Amino acid sequence: MMDPLNLAGSAIILLLGTAALALFLGRKQRLLLVAGFVLSAVASLSATIAGVRVVGWSTTSQAIMSIGLPDLPFHLRLDPLAGFFITVVGILSFVVSIYSIGYVREISKQRPIGRLVIFYALFLAGMFMVIIADDALFFLVSWELMAAASYFLVLFEDERVENRRAAFLYMVVAHVGALAILLSFGVMSGLATGFEGFHGYTFDAMRQAEFPAVWATAAFLLAFFGFAAKAGVIPLHVWLPEAHPVAPSNISALMSGVMLKTAIYGIVRVTFDLIGVFPWWWGSIVLVFGLISAVMGVLYALMQHDLKRLLAYHSVENIGIILIGIGLSMIFRSFDFPLLSSLALIAGLYHTLNHAIFKGLLFMGAGAVLHASHERNMEEMGGLIHFMPWTAALFLVGSVSIAGLPPFNGFVSEWLTFQAFLLSPSLPSPLMKLLIPLGAALLALTAALAAACFVKAFGVTFLGHWRGHHQPHVQEVDWFMRSGMIMAALLCLALGVLPTVIIDWMDTVPEQLVGSRIGTTAGAFGWMWLTPVAPARASYSGPLVFLVTLSVIVIAYLLLHVRSGSITRVPLWDCGFEKVTPRMQYTATAFAMPIRRIFGFFFHIREQVKMNPQAPHRTVPGRMQYTLRIRDRFWGWLYRPLVDASFWLSRRVGRLQQGRIQAYLIYSFVTIIVLLLFLR
Amino acid sequence: MMDLQIVSQISSFLAALVLLTAFGMLVQKRVYGLIHLFAWQGLFLSLNTAVVGFVANKHHLYISSVLTLSLKVVLLPYILHVLINRLKIRKEVETVVNIPMTMMIGIALVIFSYHLTAPIRQLSTLITRSTLAVALATVMLGLLMMITRRHAVTQIIGFLALENGLFFAATSATYGMPLVVELGVALDVLIAAFIFGIFFFHIHTTFDTLDVEQMAKLKEEN
Question: pLDDT per residue over A329-383, tens digit each?
């Protein structure tokens, strides 16, 4: 058996090799397709195995690679935390790689796919490298590799203006974030050696150092800002709803499913591991931003009619839920409640894993829909369940999971987060006494709104009749795509039904970071019952709920279908209006309308009803036109002024540019004179 | 062995001549006159280098001297001559600032250079220490010339004069740079001259003039 670190390392080398190989296979598109994605799947699987074993055995292995800058070699480390995230990334990458064989084959009929395969492999390699990096240098190199590769993936269909715009926005946000992360590491590594050497750049040196409170806070805030920009925490989320819809769907699945998780990894790594000791209010910052992202994310998602945009906003929401768990864990840890802290951390990490799987599944489903119907606007779709039953069923599994309904996985992690809220003792801080119940209420609201949102997404897309003007030629997708989605759906079910097994496995992570595990309490009643703290307080049995749900469905099906004549199909009652067309179905806009009215102040809404003036008479209106534009308020509040300010500033600076050589020479001449005068 | 005092005086005299030619270039309005002045400056520089080489007993300075002589007195003026003939530049050189004003600024720069190098003169033991100020002044006057002239050819001559000043500074401050460096610099200057020549042709064909004011058109509108 290979050492897990070697296994993960060989997976990365395999991915880099795949990217190199893809360079030479530009002519043979079919071979390129199969080789690229099969090799990626193999690499992802081996990385997953490495991750699972590291977490399961709770081992830590380190290595130093002699590449890097002179005297600053790259350090690698695989501990349970890294192992957990390697597993998350690996599982979804494996599933998506299988899916991609089918999905990219369709793309390859229209355009060369060499670029897609190369950057796909580099992107995966970058994510794995970020997670096993054990020094600031290697971390940032990998981070940038990941960002650059994903930039080119977003830009894959670069002939459209919106794609270029989205990719540019993504690049800007990613770079501002990376800059903050760089500064944060700079602060930590500088303090680790007292600003006297370069050897503070290893994470080991940062772990051993004790930071003064002010500098530690600065490092934390910078790191949180930087990682939040990558994770899409509100108000830094603007790139997400732009970049996800325009990227190919397998890439959206990876970006939303796992790339955002590397930012979560970064937050956990920096706070719990590198800084180590922190005051409670850091946790409350994370918690508050998590709550804002969760509620606002789902509200914005409800307003979207582009399926992939909707999913992108749901990523904002779910990152919020993950951050709620992490923030709670930080609060409990600084108030010294190790058991609760590990419960909240488990909740956050479990949701990380769950979100990766179900969001991956949903984006794959959206990709299948997109690829079959060539339509992104939900208002033009409908009735797809008749054409693509597999995709519909699998998308339904994803929807139920993300809506947090048992017996699927979303329920378990959201339930655990609730338990962390509800079990929290009264904390010695008045602010926390206010924030904890409020947070629980907001989380409940989020879960409910998410459910509403997916009723809309699934109902409008798959149920009813086709709304578009042209009859669609929609076909079910091929088996590669289907099997990718089936695997993800089965994982959703497994993670929901067997939470005790999973928590037993991942319990080593809080043990490493917080110093306590919940396994003994979670599985005290055997693998059937999940009891996070005490059976008197709360417990949940995944298998039991699954069996009950299954039997209800089976009984209902039998009751309806065994007796012939229990279902009769009759013509639709048309209210006396004779011409009922598919355009008269309940629309997504109509579905979201009540929520739009209630939470209207969060959005920038412009609603217009226009009458056609060419009506024959006032009593007989002609065509009516209804337009509705809903925009993110943050763009106007935060980004528009920033953009304006930077343009204003650059125009000012631009005046220096006279276009005359003499002027430029005078600049240098005056500079020289001034320097000679004052600095001699 | 010649008396050190006399050698030092010769060196200072040559430095004064270099400075004089630099001022001459500032005033000179005709392109041919400028080239001749540039050649004279090169000659004085080369002589000075040889004198310094002789007194400091540094033989590689002789090679520098010969290089300067062949490059800056013969080759570069020749290239510029050919260029001007080819491009048929006849008219007088236009200046941005009027000549007396330029002279005043130049004098201020020379005083500034002396002020600047005063501490170095007190510390240094080299016999050429007094010429360092002149070298610095030559650099600044070259730059000043580039700023006050509008014609591309005069700007190049200004640049070459600036380079002369740098070379002069190297000789007077440290008895010259290592030979390898000097060879490299000489080659650089030669290549620069060729590139300038090519650019002249391009500027001339694009704008139909060598007046660099025309290049302001290249600026973005705002």
Answer: 999 998 888 888 989 999 999 999 999 999 999 999 999 998 888 888 888 888 8
* Chain B residues within 8 Å of chain A (Cβ atoms): 96, 112, 116, 119, 140, 143-144, 146-148, 150, 155, 212-213, 215-220, 222
Nearest Cβ partner of B219 from A659, A673, A680?
A659
Three-state DSSP at A610 gives strand
pLDDT attached to residue A451:
93
Q: Are residues A450 and A369 in the same domain?
A: yes
Give the residue from A201, A241, A205, A253 showing the smallest Cα distance to A69: A201
**Three-class SS of residue A73?**
strand
- Do the beta carbons of residue A75 and residue A138 sit within 8 Å? yes
Q: Does A579 touch chain B (CB under 8 A)?
A: no
Q: Is A463 domain-assigned?
A: yes
Computed over every residue of chain A, the mean pLDDT equals 87
Q: Best interface-test mutation with A: which of B97, B139, B143 has the largest number of A CBs within 10 A?
A: B143
Residue A57 lies in a domain: no
In a domain, A139, yes or no: no
Rounded to 5°, the CA angle A217-A332-A186 comes to: 20
When pLDDT is cut at 50, 70 and 90, the band that residue B28 belongs to is confident
Which of A513, A544, A563 is the last residue in one of the domains? A563
Question: For chain A, what is the domain count?
Answer: 2
- Closest-CA residue of A relative to B115 is A677
Tell whether A320 is covered by a domain: yes
Q: Which pLDDT band, with edges at 50, 70 and 90, does A494 fall under?
A: very high
For residues A558 and A610, membership in a common domain is answered with: no
Chain B contact present for A666, CB below 8 A: yes
What total of structural domains would you count in chain B?
A: 1
CA dihedral over A71, A76, A81, A86, signed as positive or negative:
positive
Q: In this structure, are A413 and A511 located in the same domain?
A: yes
Highest mean pLDDT among A14-18, A668-672, B63-67: A14-18
Structural domain span for residue A616: 599-678
Q: How many angstroms away from the CA of A647 is the closest CA of chain B?
A: 12
Note down the domain range covering B197.
4-218
In tens, the pLDDT along A108-162 reads: 888 888 889 999 999 999 999 999 999 899 999 999 999 999 999 998 888 888 8
Across the interface, whether the CB atoms of A654 and B144 are under 8 A apart is answered: no
Interface mutation vs chain B, best among A650, A656, A662, A673, most B CBs within 10 Å: A662
Q: Which residue of B has its CA nearest to A655?
A: B222
Nearest chain A residue to B150, by CA: A662
Cα→Cα distances A31→A26, A38, B105, Å? 9, 10, 73
Residues A484 and A406 in one domain: yes
The ipTM, to two decimals, is 0.82
Nearest CA in chain B to A652: B222
Q: Is A652 on the interface with B (CB under 8 A)?
A: no
Stretch A649-673: mean pLDDT:
84
**Eight-class DSSP state of B212:** G
pLDDT of residue A318: 94
Q: Are residues A432 and A510 in the same domain?
A: yes
Interface test with A, best of B111, B139, B146, B220 (most A CBs within 10 A): B146
Q: Rounded to whole angstroms, what are the CA distances from B144 to A660, B92, B211?
A: 15, 19, 17
B216·A660 Cβ contact <8 A:
yes
Residues B95/B125, Cβ–Cβ less than 8 Å: no
Convert B21-55 to b/e letters by CB count within 10 Å (16 or more is b): bbbbbbebeebeebbbbbbbbbbbbbbbbbbbbbb
Q: Do B220 and A654 touch (CB under 8 A)?
A: yes
- For residues A606 and A557, membership in a common domain is answered with no
Closest partner residue to B143 among A654, A661, A669, by Cβ? Answer: A669
Domain finish residue from A536, A563, A590: A563
Contact criterion met (CB < 8 Å) for A654 and B216: no
What number is the average pLDDT over the span A482-502?
91
Element (H, E) at A148: helix A136-154
Same-domain check for residues A539 and A603: no
pLDDT for A571 beyond 70: yes
* Same domain (yes/no): A511, A644: no
